[in-house]
Amino acid sequence: xxxxxxxxxxxxxxxxxxxxxxxxxxxxxxxxxxxxxxxxxxxxxxxxxxxxxxxxxxxxxxxxxxxxxxxxxxxxxxxxxxxxxxxxxxxxxxxxxxxxxxxxxxxxxxxxxxxxxxxxxxxxxxxxxxxxxxxxxxxxxxxxxxxxx
Length: 149
Description:
Elements: E1 2-7, E2 12-17, H1 20-34, H2 36-42, E3 52-55, H3 58-79, E4 87-92, E5 105-114, E6 121-128, E7 136-138, E8 142-147
Antiparallel strand pairs: 1-2, 1-3, 4-5, 4-8, 5-6, 6-7
């Protein structure tokens, strides 16, 4: 199986397929799901015109994987929202110039939800066991709740 980039003018997906024909079919189904928000907003079916089908680059594949991890992390956090006093373990902090090491433990001191809907993110203030105080931004930062405060 090969990863293929399948795109309209506005959106794209990366799908696993044996060839371009199968990639177009799988891409059409995935794009149909991706356009559900627009169908809901407009209250009607939205035509999807696939403009590009080609092998995906490693950067495109990594971007999709990162996005999938972010969505999974967001679902976990919605299912079990973090709150002050919770003990957490850092999984990944990718964009900080002086990040906390993965695996480090800390105690949440505050959590604030910012924005709304699909653009929502959380600012999570943490006192880390290593002596540092550094907030998480979730997503994209990833963590696990290991004990409730």
